[in-house]
Amino acid sequence: MKIAIHGKKITKNISPCLEDLFQILAEFKVEIGVSTEYRKELRNTGFDLEGISSFELGDDLREYNFILSVGGDGTMLDTVTYSGSYQIPIVGINVGRLGFLATTPRDEISRAIGDLHKGNYKIASRSLIHVDSDVALFDSFNFGLNELTIVKKETSSMIVVHTYVDGEFLNSYWADGLIVSTPTGSTGYSLSCGGPLVDPSLKNFILTPVSPHNLNVRPMIVSDESEITFKIEGRTKRFMVSLDSRSCSVNDSVEISVRKEAFDAKLVQFDGYEYFETLRNKLNWGVDARN
User: Fold this and answer.
1) The pTM is what?
2) Which of the residues are catalytic?
3) Domain of 198: which CATH number?
4) Are 160 and 255 members of one domain?
């Protein structure tokens, strides 16, 4: 078995978890590759990486059976760009905080690697959002698992996002911005702006305004078979466009559209994982706050 590993910042409390991970992988005689970005972090923390190969973003990773994402949900979003159209199954090892996507706790790493070795897992396909524009945005990695966000760059005034669905005018959103989320991303930024929770197996986009000027403007769900296009205007001429954790500044002449990506993200789920249970636990549903 051959496994790629990607992560971000390594803190003192994460180091023991990583030591256990590398030891367990060695016990299972797993061939390891580490992203160049993460390799620097590991080396600075004192890990011995002799005999371990490395890979760059954009490399063909089809030789790997799995990618381990070591961190939180932000790291998972990064890892999706490494997997890309090769659709390498991703295992989320949660050493972060909330963990809607990275669902394997650090104390279950040994069991998770054993289950991978035995084939005791399921693969969940998660739809991705694809961004097209008339200028180069996000290089060739113009896809994301959670959302596209268009927001104002300055703090002084709102922007107007004129929005069309399959060429038909929907609305002009007077707001701080607009989020177009996948069902997977419905637990992210969209949720914090009042968007609905959507089962990730569904095939939708969620349009959620950010602090709209008109309070009767509500989030809306449309089919992800639609193409959604935007024209942006405001008092200032530059705006921020974000795709998951990546952002860039654009001017008001940019033309942007989104559609469903042609490929999916493949997330590994182990026995005992239940989406609704994860929601209850992470959002503290049913917890009596008076205790």
Assistant:
1) 0.92
2) 73
3) 2.60.200.30
4) yes
